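Two proteins, back to back. First:
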Amino acid sequence: MVRTNSEMNETYRSFDIWRRRDSNTLVRYRCFENCSTGRFCVQSSDSYKRPVTNDQIQSLEKQFIELLIEQSPFERGGFFATIEEAISDHDKSFA
């Protein structure tokens, strides 16, 4: 895939949103805000169950960075006015 100059110069703010699924499951949404547009997306979500291992954490961090290198998070996750809309869309897409 060839990237345009505008895609290469995009800047993002990354942040995490956490949600408890049940007493043993925690989900981390890997979210971005486009600094130019103020729009939001969810690149991916990570599920954690007890016991959480260092290998699991390292693997998910590596995947997060590899996905970001591979493709703009907004190409992968859409453009939404609120983070709640982005999370809802992500959940529907991966239900």
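And the second protein:
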Amino acid sequence: MLIDLGAAELLDAWFSLEIETLTTSLVWREVTRRTQKAKLRQFARADKIQVVGSAPKQCRKSSG
């Protein structure tokens, strides 16, 4: 979803909604376009997105 929001240039609009946003480190690594990665890093530094590990145990822990 983050990749699609970035491609559509909707990241600012998404994060302005202040919805808790989590992604896995696997998805984080999939973002390869420099402009999208730079934009996502800004939101990560502002604590608007959290990157969690990709291991199943870590994902379960974060969702509950």
